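Before the break, one more example. Copy the sequence into your notebook; we will annotate it together after we see the structure.
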Amino acid sequence: MPKEIARAADTAADYQRYGLKADTIQPFEDGMRTNASDQSFEWWYLDATLADGRSAVLTYMTKDPMNFGKELKPWVSFEWTGLDGKTSTYRNDVTATDFQAAKDHCDVQIGQSTLTGDLQTYRVHFEKDDVVADLVFENKLSPWRPGSGVDEFGDHYFAWLPAVPAAKVTGTVQFGDEKVAVTGNGYHDHNWGDESMLKLIHHWYWGRATVGDYQVISADITAAKRYDYTELPVMMIADHGQIISGDAENMAVTGSDVVIDEHTGKSIQKKQAYQLKNGQTEYVLTYEIKQTISGFKMIDQISGVKKWLAKMVGFDGAYLRFTGDISVAKYVDGQLVDQQSKPDGIWELMYFGKNIEKA
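Here is what the structure looks like once it is written out:
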């Protein structure tokens, strides 16, 4: 059977087909991009690293992106990591009648929780019992996407819009009678697609960080076997606020020091380097793992009949999160002109398929 093609949709015809402009992000792109009755999924994601060391993650979801159909099954979650390093998760699942989302801009309501924004300022409200979060994300950069933001896998697609690559975050978080003011840095992106990621993607590495004067976002996506394990790398680097994009045409990703993770059995690259060329300037973004801070087999997160079925088909997915050194080196005409590093960066590996030689 011939392999199907996986590709980044980044030609002029692609922009026209998706109603996009090559160099401009429009407000509708962060509105709801799917139809609720379609075979599709969609989510809006935000996270904040706070000045005192605490962190927050919020996800507004239309359907389960791994196992979905034409029925809306909305939920919203709020993850809070305290000063003790422990994470608590609060989640609201609602009926389809308690979900609304605008098409022309970001305006999502799931039960009593809301997310509204205009590509520059986003207001987040989460509410469950006595837990309430009210946060404002102010974009410090321009919205960005790699090409059209769409990767096509045969007749299917997966799309990604980092609407807020880097944000200033302010607001309050309340637990019962205790209400605290928070400040920090954050991020917001938006994803949607029409097929389970389990079927499209073998694995991906994804990371983002502020490294001195640079903001970086990177992803190295490897398509599933049916798409011949095609690699779809992307990278954004903001050099003192100026955004530069990287894709398969002007960048390369190399990995080394491959080891097997003891808990999940997955092969991981302990060191990754993303090389991006922009004229006479070259950037090298390097991730080097010091510790695996989270790792689990996805099958352990499900139960009952679903778990039995997953075992029957040999499902072998896993998720890993790492901490370590993230560095940026800048070269002009082959000469190193700047190098900055972040010693406590965090990045992830989502592994849907079985191990292959190329981790």
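The helical segments are 12-18, 197-200, 304-312. DSSP finds three helices and 22 strands in the chain. Try to locate both features in your own notes.
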